Amino acid sequence: MRAGLAASPEVPTKVGYPVGLRRLVVLRREQLNRSLLRVVLGGADLAGFCSRVPEEHVRLLFPDPDGSLRLPVPEGPDLRWPRPLPTSREYTVRHHDPDAGELWIDLAVHPGGLASDWAVAAAPGTRVHVAGPPGGMVLPGGFDRFLFAGDLTAQPQIARYLERLPSTATGWAVLDVVDAGEELPMTAPAGVQVSWVHRGDVPVHPGGAFERVLRSLPLDGGARTFLWIAGEAGVLKPLRRWVRHDLGLPRSDHLVTGYWKRGVADYDED
Question: Tell me, what's the pLDDT at 6?
């Protein structure tokens, strides 16, 4: 089994890391699909960056509206954050290559988004402060199959999970997109079926095609399934009820996380 999936806690468990603050530099940008942009960061400060499990997040820090940049201060293994909190946005650690000195961050681009606008304009050499990761999520072991599902914002995390599954894994990955222009090639075990749900110009909403596809999957039959879903918080409300009440999955066997909420900047479900 690959690194990061060997540990087998009883429930999805966060493992803590010493939390670093790093001043990194943009090495390059890559347009992954119409709406997803990869920013590759590096620099001397990346030394010692900790990445051990599939689900980890960092915060990119930006100047406040008045132009001031307020940064957290290292305090033991953690950071002490000023109040009110500095302007920042949280993103999945898509990939960390210590040998190449690279940290990949994949961002959903949309007009008017703080980090999105920064990423679109960031030329090689642009500097940015990065905090974290504060830890990572370890999944329980002993599952017969997996279901990973989400919208555009969940693509980087789902891609990382799929890459780290054992080659014998089976299950599904279901991704909600506008059309084929938002699809991203996924590297998955042969036994994991990757499906793209095209919703067209209809905004993500509860009860849509994405939810109908999830509810149609053959999740009965006694096989133990781990289910992971992320996306817009309102879309996930009925899916949480479906997972807990209809499927009856115990807390150890699922993780449903709101990555963003319509009309709320820097939404944090925690």
Answer: 42
